[in-house]
Design a protein that fits this description.
With 194 residues, the protein is α+β, with helices and mostly antiparallel strands. It contains 5 helices and 8 strands; from the N terminus they run βαββαβαβαβββα. The chain is 34% helix and 26% strand. Strand 7 and strand 8 form a beta hairpin.
Length: 194
């Protein structure tokens, strides 16, 4: 699908961005992954909305993907997995990454990777050295490829099952270097020769 403008990764700040975040949240976590009950509004405002920092991918004024970062405890994962800290490496400054969602037509590209990379850089700047997620079981290959480590039992129910996972700063930085090297090799191999 052709995009109207180049893609940009950023922190959401505009009203139109938040409106599209709530719509994508609904399509993903009500219609696709049946985690929440349907509503006639077609909006799903996250219960932690006021505390979330949304990392988004846009093309012009079109939202393509999003995720949320939050550091205030209890995390949503604290509520799903009792004694969460018993599963985590000690002595870390932890945040939670949630609501990773990408429009269906853009899932085969670099949007998810770009969102997670931007979020990782944001987390490092904020002083977090580990992130936890409840990763949908549908995307375990992607999360493991990025360096996330699964722990504990699955949470959720029915078609909305999630694997608790964490990513350390060290794993993020190592994977970021690997991805940068792979992108450089790909760009080099695509260079036209005279």
């Amino acid at each position: 699908m052709k995009l109207p403008a180049p893609i940009e990764f950023k922190i959401a700040t505009e009203d139109w961005e938040f409106e599209q975040i709530h719509r994508l949240n609904y399509r993903t976590f009500v219609e696709e992954i049946p985690q929440h009950q349907p509503s006639p509004t077609g909006f799903l405002v996250d219960r932690f909305h006021a505390e979330n920092t949304y990392i988004i991918c846009v093309s012009g004024r079109q939202l393509i993907g999003m995720l949320a970062v939050r550091s205030k405890r209890p995390f949503s994962l604290d509520q799903k997995l009792p004694r969460l800290d018993d599963h985590l490496p000690p002595g870390r400054s932890v945040c939670e990454i949630r609501l990773l969602a990408v429009e269906k037509n853009y899932r085969m590209g670099q949007v998810s990777l770009g969102l997670l990379k931007y979020a990782g850089e944001y987390c490092v700047r904020q002083g977090y050295d580990m992130a936890v997620i409840s990763g949908t079981t549908r995307q375990q290959k992607l999360y493991k490829h990025l360096g996330f480590v699964p722990f504990g039992p699955l949470v959720g129910s029915g078609e909305a099952l999630f694997q608790p996972m964490y990513l350390t700063r060290e794993a993020f930085e190592a994977n970021t270097k690997d991805f940068a090297a792979a992108e450089a090799r790909e760009a080099q191999s695509n260079r036209p020769w005279a």
